[in-house]
Write a structure and sequence with these properties.
Residues 14-336 form the Acyltransferase domain. The chain is an all-alpha fold. It has one domain (3-344). It is 61% helix and 0% strand. The chain contains 13 helices and no strands. The longest helix has 31 residues, at 80-110. The model is unreliable at 1-7 and 354-366 (pLDDT under 50).
């Protein structure tokens, strides 16, 4: 990339790439403690509470960033096929690779079953469903990581993709069921979803459905409300950060402190994340050499489980984190340059009208 393009390209005028990378690396650290049974000893976790902790921070960043950028993708897409194609190109290629690696390499190497028996198990082949998370995730493979004392999942990180890709499908229905009024339809349905969640959570509990109750609904609303901010055309780049960032941070801490106000975080946190995302700093250049966040996210959990198995569980969080990063980062770099980047270059198919990218940020990435 030329120096001139580097300084003028939209993606280098925000912190979305940094926040994605931060979130991916923090997932590795969080799981390093969780998979060794020491989650309560994780240093940053001790600063928070049972609800407002650094897992909350990680998930909030993940869903807010995704919600905002996916709305951009939906609005620039020429139709259902264009939008679906963009999403599939971003999520599925590497997910297919990781799923196949799990079945045909990790499985035979770490299963307590012999290879012939392993491949005769139906569970081995139903693991292929992980290629398309909206149908649900299968976390285990026959006999694999069964000696790992804390967790036997091959890739426990994938649960977030179930929610995210189901939200993609919801976006498809909203944006492409009709030909006009997409923005207004989204705003109306987003407000309705918020009201139903708030009523069910705080005023009259009428349903235990995960759609409007619990963590899945809470983080789905982070996604939805971040998208709502995009549709409201708020110019976060022009805001005075010295005022808005401290104010939103204080509101976040206050809402988290008072149990009856916790639901307000679904509105406050997306605003805070966008203020951070649209701040100008040297961190804007994070993805100059590539976007490695998705590769780190997908590869890290199987790598951690493999390391724990090879060490018979005799490893502590910090060495596990260091070893995982040393293995995962090169895999993520290779994945970006030889797979993800090439797949994204196919996003404009001949039967889709090519539309210039928006001026506010980059093509949505995990």
């Amino acid at each position: 990339m030329s120096t001139e393009l580097y300084h003028t390209h939209p993606r280098f005028r925000n912190n979305f790439d940094f926040l994605r990378l931060f979130t991916a690396v923090y997932v590795v650290m969080l799981h390093s403690y969780g998979l060794t049974g020491q989650l309560d000893n994780e240093p940053l976790r001790s600063w928070g509470s049972t609800t407002f902790n650094f897992s909350f921070v990680r998930l909030s960043l993940f869903f807010c960033i995704s919600g905002y950028l996916v709305m951009q993708s939906a609005m620039r897409s020429t139709g259902l096929g264009d939008f679906a194609w963009r999403r599939l190109l971003r999520i599925q290629p590497l997910l297919i690779v990781v799923t196949l690696v799990s079945i045909f390499i990790i499985g035979p190497l770490f299963s307590s079953l012999d290879i012939a028996t392993y491949f005769k198990q139906l569970q081995t082949w139903t693991h292929l469903r992980n290629i398309f998370p909206p149908t649900g995730i299968q976390y285990n493979l026959p006999g694999v990581f069964q000696a790992n004392s804390v967790e036997t999942s091959v890739n426990g990180s994938l649960w977030t993709l179930v929610i995210e890709e189901r939200l993609y499908i919801a976006c498809m229905i909203i944006f492409f069921a009709g030909s006009t009024g997409k923005r207004k339809a989204y705003i109306f349905l987003a407000i309705a979803y918020n009201l139903i969640y708030i009523i069910n959570t705080n005023l009259w509990h009428f349903s235990d459905s995960i759609i409007i109750n619990g963590n899945a609904a809470f983080y789905s609303l982070m996604f939805v409300n971040a998208g709502l901010l995009f549709h409201l055309n708020i110019d976060f780049q022009s805001h005075k950060k010295i005022i808005w960032l401290p104010l939103l941070l204080l509101l976040t801490l206050a809402a988290a402190h008072f149990k009856n106000c916790f639901f307000l975080l679904i509105f406050i946190v997306p605003c805070l994340v966008m203020e951070i995302a649209f701040s100008r700093s040297f961190l804007n250049r994070t993805a100059r050499f590539g976007d490695f966040s998705y590769g780190i996210f997908l590869f890290s959990f199987p790598v951690q489980q493999s390391v724990i198995s090879l060490t018979n569980g005799n490893i502590t969080p910090i060495p596990l984190f260091a070893i995982t990063i040393l293995i995962t980062l090169p895999l993520a770099v290779l994945s970006w340059h030889f797979l993800e980047k090439k797949m994204l270059s196919l996003k404009h198919r001949p039967w889709f009208k090519k539309i210039p990218p928006p001026s506010t940020s980059s093509e949505p990435r995990h």
